[in-house]
């Protein structure tokens, strides 16, 4: 018998402020979240997964080539996109999350890197995370994948 879901997150943050140094030269003029893989930007892949999982709000932090990331994120339909502006100072992961907390609210939320994506199995991974969440016993829950199963894909910059 499936576990009854007592809570479903409404908000997520997509980390999108990084400099993309490991992906140079692709990121010299295109921010990493806008790099396309198989015709779709990495940000759009992340946001689509969140939308499919029933989330409502997506906070996106911006720093490197921030105007491009912000413009692209605001075009995504189906989520209330909010921008956490780090143009003045790159805050790294923890600082970026801390700054965005007022936009995320007080309930648990999903945190997603814009540059990670996966092929779904029988059941969507974000649905599995939500179903596994135990508010009484957890402060955090992580989705991890063994590196042996990771696959590199060819990417190209978009304009």
Please characterize this protein's 3D structure.
The chain is built from 4 helices and 6 strands. It is an alpha/beta fold and 159 residues long. The protein has a single domain (11-149), classed as Spore Coat Polysaccharide Biosynthesis Protein SpsA, Chain A. The strands form 2 sheets. Strands 5-4-1-6 form a 4-stranded parallel β-sheet. It has a two-stranded antiparallel sheet with strand order 2-3. Strand 4, helix 2 and strand 5 (80-85) form a beta-alpha-beta unit. The longest helix is centred in the middle third of the chain and has 13 residues, at 92-104. The model has no long low-confidence stretch (mean pLDDT 84).
Total count of strands:
6
Q: Judging from the principal axes of the Cα atoms, what is the shape?
A: globular
Amount of helix: 25-40%
**CATH topology heading:** Spore Coat Polysaccharide Biosynthesis Protein SpsA, Chain A
User: What is the assigned CATH homologous superfamily?
Assistant: Spore Coat Polysaccharide Biosynthesis Protein SpsA, Chain A
Residue ranges: pLDDT <50 for 5 or more in a row?
Answer: none
Distance between the termini: 48 Å
Oligomer: single chain
Cα-atom radius of gyration: 16 Å
**Top-tier CATH class:** Alpha Beta
Main sheet, how many strands, which sense, barrel? Answer: 4 strands, parallel
- Give me the CATH architecture, please: Alpha-Beta Complex
SSE ordering: EEEHEHEHEH
Q: What share of residues are in beta strands?
A: 15-25%
- The structure class reads alpha/beta
Biggest β-sheet: strands ordered side by side in the sheet: 5-4-1-6
Mean model confidence by pLDDT: 84
Number of DSSP helices? 4
Number of domains as seen in the coordinates? 1
